[in-house]
Amino acid sequence: MTAVKKLKAAIIGSGNIGTDLMYKLLRSPWVEPVWMIGIDPQSEGLKRAKEKGLETFDQGLKQAIDAGVHPDIVFDSTSAKAHVRHAKILQTLGIQTIDLTPAARGPYVCAAVNLHEHLDTLNVNMITCGGQATVPITYAVQRVTPVEYAEIVATVSSKSAGPGTRQNIDEFTVTTAKAHEVIGGAKKGKAIIILNPAEPPIMMRNTIYCQVGDVGKETEANIIKSIHDMVSYIQTYVPGYRLNRDILFRDGIVNVSIEVEGLGDFLPVYAGNLDIMTTAAVKVAEEMAKHRLAVVKNE
């Protein structure tokens, strides 16, 4: 039997997200992690990547490029500011990039909503962890009835928020809010994030409020069905994504609460906020790989 050809991938960033991403990619039938690029020689992520057979670099992207590395696809799991620099280099080289920071240099991609719209785009933005978890709910409501305003509160364990996450908090609120408008379809979006220091650490929890005005019982039933359909779809690639209470309707607002439990590949299961980001990025990369490899096969 002929082995399936895979896209060769580089991961920029050897922190929590980059390392968790590596473990997920090692299981992928479509994308092979070959290189990990960091800036800290003592990084636990670089150490683990080397143990798994990846070629590693500890002085950043330029060092890897100068060494002749030219991946089919790159995952950037650094910070919004660092990605602005990386994007310029990768675009010049024509390397397709999946941006896991909130830098938003390319179009927003939410794996549950517009996965197939940007398969040929050179740089796509995975919004934020909160965006991957909550934008699909606003979209699910909006496909039944117009959403005037969507507000989300994402609560994550403080322990799951590493240096990169904390550096990106300002961009998180802006990018997540905008994604509820651009992809979710709300006329106005707003995002709030809370880092909860509770011990033991809590699971990622997201509350989504969608202002829809007074709607009848039939529309309420259609909204509930649309949300349940969306949750079931996301569970095909994020098994720990679930409603943690009934959907509520009060004063013209739909109130939805979501909990995300991670797979526990590298991170603890309570770090569902990071897990949904890496899982969504892998799903997008695999769709890009199927698309690109099919194109090559048909040429």
UniProtKB/TrEMBL annotation:
Natural source organism: Geobacillus genomosp. 3
Pfam families per the UniProt record, alphabetical: AcetDehyd-dimer, Semialdhyde_dh
Enzyme type, top EC level: oxidoreductase
Molecular function, one GO term: acetaldehyde dehydrogenase (acetylating) activity
Entry binding sites for NAD(+): 14-17, 160-168, 273
Top-level taxon in the UniProt lineage: Bacteria
Listed EC numbers: 1.2.1.10
Family that this chain belongs to: Belongs to the acetaldehyde dehydrogenase family.
Reaction catalysed by this enzyme: acetaldehyde + NAD(+) + CoA = acetyl-CoA + NADH + H(+)
Residue stretches making up the Semialdehyde dehydrogenase NAD-binding domain: 8-121
Keywords, in A-Z order: Aromatic hydrocarbons catabolism, NAD, Oxidoreductase
Active site (catalytic residues): 129
Protein name, as recorded: Acetaldehyde dehydrogenase
